[in-house]
Design a protein that fits this description.
This protein is an all-beta fold. Helices cover about 0% and strands about 60% of the residues. The radius of gyration is 24 Å and the shape is rod-shaped.
Length: about 160
């Protein structure tokens, strides 16, 4: 009985979230290939660079030397891009008050509020709407969040 060996390497990449774009190239000068996922795909032997990316997540990747007749399983779960908010609310006498904070119509908590915010947005924008509500009054503010920074705001009623 003759045992035949594959001339390819079989690669599986566990990608989360599944919406990430997967890019790879063979060697440092190879032409990049883009695909949504790699599930049981055959690759010629060699050194490859794999990268997962999108606007909502940090880029994450790895290099791998693939050998013929071998199976490889890799996991890529990049962290979400984040920013932060720091919201304080004051009354007319400059006393700190406990007011409800909403970010894009989603309840976030009570002031003073410091919280990490995922920067993922369907429209690709980092613009958000903050509403602070206190005793039937609402103050609104449109803000632009930046990655790895804290957006501080003082709201006066």
């Amino acid at each position: 009985m003759v045992e035949l060996k594959s001339r390819f390497a079989l690669v599986m990449v566990d990608l989360s979230p599944a919406s990430l774009t997967m890019t790879w190239k063979k060697g440092k000068k190879g032409k990049p290939t883009t695909q949504n996922s790699i599930l049981g795909q055959e690759f010629d032997p060699g050194v490859y660079e794999f990268m997962a990316q999108d606007a909502c997540h940090l880029h994450q990747g790895f290099r791998a030397k693939l050998k013929a007749n071998e199976e490889y399983t890799f996991r890529l779960h990049p962290a979400t891009r984040k920013s932060g908010i720091d919201i304080e609310a004051y009354d007319q006498e400059s006393n700190a008050i406990a007011a409800d904070v909403y970010l894009d119509d989603r309840y976030m908590g009570v002031t003073p509020l410091q919280q990490a915010i995922n920067l993922c947005a369907k429209d690709g924008s980092f613009r958000r709407k903050i509403e602070v509500r206190y005793q039937g009054k609402t103050e609104s503010k449109n803000i632009t969040l930046e990655e790895n920074s804290i957006s501080a705001h003082q709201i006066r009623f």
